[in-house]
Amino acid sequence: MTNIDVGMMRNAIKSAIKNLDVNKDMVNALNVFPVPDGDTGINMFLTIKSAGNYALAEETNHCGELARALSKGALMGARGNSGVILSQILRGFYMGVEDFKELDVKAIKRGFESSKEIAYKAVMKPTEGTILSVVRYMSAFAVSNQSKFSDPIEYLEAIYAEGERALEKTPEMLPVLKEAGVVDSGGKGLLVLLRGAIDGLKGEEVQYTAEVVETKTQEVVFDENIKFGYCTEFIIHTDNTDQHDADTLKEELLKFGDSLVCVKVEDIIKVHVHTNHPGKALELALERGYLTGIKSDNMRLQNAEVRRAHEEEQQKKYEALQAEEEKAPQKEYGFVAVASGEGIMNVFKDFEVDEIVSGGQTMNPSVEDLTKKIDKVNAKNIFVLPNNSNIVLTAEKAAEFSDKNVIVIPTKTIPQGISAMINFDFDLDLDDAIETLNESIKAVKSGSITYAVRDTTVSGKKINQGDYMGILESDIVSSSDDIYDTILETLKKGIDEDTSIVTLYAGEEVTEVQMDEIIEKLENEFDDITIEGLMGNQQVYYYLISIE
Questions:
Q1: How far from each other are the two terminal CA atoms of the chain, in whole angstroms?
Q2: Rounded Cα gap, residues 166 and 146, in angstroms
Q3: What is the pLDDT of residues 41-73, one digit of tens each?
Q4: d(CA 107, CA 193)
């Protein structure tokens, strides 16, 4: 039996990244909806790649510390729901193993147990049949079967096998998976990572090509209440070879110290202790022999010096930021919006959105991407419009990182985000402003027109590869080989007696002439509704549709 050390853990991280890099397209293809924006695999890959960059740049010989760097890197680079949930799984694993320099069976059990707890807490309404179910099954197996294993790698192989069994059950837990004939993509991505990690632990040669960041953000931690102020170390050279002598010394030192390491090898006792009375420790040592390697550092002074230097650095940054902000008065409200396509970005800019984060279905921005944009907005209150259901959780994590007052308005589509800006009044007080934005989301129905990347069946309807598909909110409501027929059927499903205006945002593959022709036909079909068009230039979707 061999515990997992830092070197083995580094190999596991590299191999896990490599395995998901190779298989990310396969994970993408498992998305329930056969649209060309299936990005679970790429989101998880970019998240684990960021995690690896942080971890592999960490100089440590402690698995818990390496897990901490992995967790931080995952959160900073998390993209989409799958990436954020993966970051929480890794955070939970770190919290379970943080005290372990090397990982044994007990550490792994704690890691999986904590992963499940933290991952479920991260999601307001956990859905079974997803990556969460796979984590839950593996955690339960790890807890119930720890006593059967002594080798951590064999233990991980068994946990992985349980994860495979759980993944196969996901279609039974989530009907949409069964109907589409696939297993959960996030759960599969997690198992791809675990498979790669286990292979790396076994010492298999893995070529790692992902770029490792040269610099990383260090978190400065101060101990406000240092109980024992002197870090004291020494070596005792003694004629007494009885191990009991070292055990007795331990008991005596623990009466006035902690963080004790006291190791006896033949005629040498190596001692490390934190204490307020280094003299007493040295007196006890001198009773047993002569001393070498004496060192006693005042940790309170060290802590104060580090704090002073850190505070000076922070003050300089603050003064620089203040000087920058003084150039322009701080306004009451600011906006950050996620969008893709030059036309759609221009719409948000026209409605006074301060910062645009490039992204959407094909490329979810990370927590770090959003945080950088939030930091650039000089406003008392900053609203973030994710404009995609897969980015809301990422935006919420970015808001937690910011020192500013950041409010995430959970817009799940571009039409919802535009509706929010159209109806916003900059003269409202904060509570009314938030209420107005949230009410604006409800006032619009969102649709889109794309194409099927494979044959499938949704809600009993056969969809052929290459067919146009009409999606209303989150449901596929129409499909055919004719784009106008698909748009018309989608609108008929979405328009009701309260509808007064429909706006089409044409994608990058649509010409303005084609859009105008479709609008002319629709005006003849819906003569009491205003039909408008705008070149959005977005990828993936031929049209985004706003129904108000």
A1: 65
A2: 18
A3: 888 999 899 999 999 999 999 999 999 999 888
A4: 19
How far, in whole angstroms, is CA 223 from its chain's centroid?
28
**For residues 285 and 389, what is the distance between their CA atoms, to the nearest angstrom?**
64
State how far the alpha carbon of 474 is from the alpha carbons of 53, 250, 298, in Å: 35, 65, 61
Number of neighbours of residue 233 by Cβ within 10 angstroms: 16
Q: What is the dihedral of CA 115, 31, 127, 458, to 10 degrees?
A: -170
C-alpha–C-alpha distance, residues 169 and 140, integer Å: 15
Cβ-based neighbour number of residue 526 at 10 Å? 16
Strand partners, 456: 463
For 519-540, how does the pLDDT look when each residue is reduced to its tens digit (9 = 90+)? 999 999 998 999 999 999 988 8
Token look-up 């060290």 returns: 302
Where does residue 418 rank: exposed (0-12), middle (13-18), buried (19+ CB within 10 A)?
Answer: buried
166 membership: H or E segment, kind and range: helix 152-173
CA angle 69, 73, 75 (to 5 degrees): 120
Q: How confident is the model at residue 31 (pLDDT cuts 50, 70, 90)?
A: confident
What is the enclosing helix (H) or strand (E) of 314?
helix 299-326
Euclidean distance between CA atoms 6 and 59, whole angstroms: 10
Which amino acid is present at 387?
Answer: N
Amino acid occupying residue 29: A
pLDDT at 311: 67
The whole-angstrom distance between residue 55's C-alpha and the CA centroid of its chain comes to: 15
Question: Residue 136: which H helix or E strand, with range?
Answer: helix 131-145
- Residue 117: how many other CB atoms lie within 10 Å: 17
Query: CA–CA separation, 112 vs 103, rounded Å?
Result: 12
215 three-class SS: coil
Chain centroid to Cα 307, Å, comes to: 30
Kindly give, in sequence order, each residue whose CB lies less than 8 Å from that of residue 535, ignoring residues fewer than 6 positions away. Answer: 343, 505, 506, 510, 512, 515
Structure tokens at 543: 């049209």
Residue 210 and residue 45 in contact, taking contact as beta carbons nearer than 8 Å: no
Amino acid identity for residue 308 in this structure: R
* Separation between Cα atoms, residue 112 and residue 159, nearest integer Å: 9
Instruction: Look up residue 130 and give its amino acid.
Output: T
User: What average pLDDT does this structure show over 265-282?
Assistant: 77
Is the C-alpha dihedral spanning 183, 189, 192, 198 positive or negative?
A: negative
Among the ranges given (121-125, 126-130, 438-442), the one the predictor scored with the smallest mean pLDDT? 121-125
Query: Above 50 in pLDDT, residue 210?
Result: no
Could you tell me the maximum CA-CA distance found in the chain, to the nearest angstrom?
Answer: 104
> In this structure, are residues 78 and 72 in contact, taking their beta carbons and an 8 Å threshold?
no
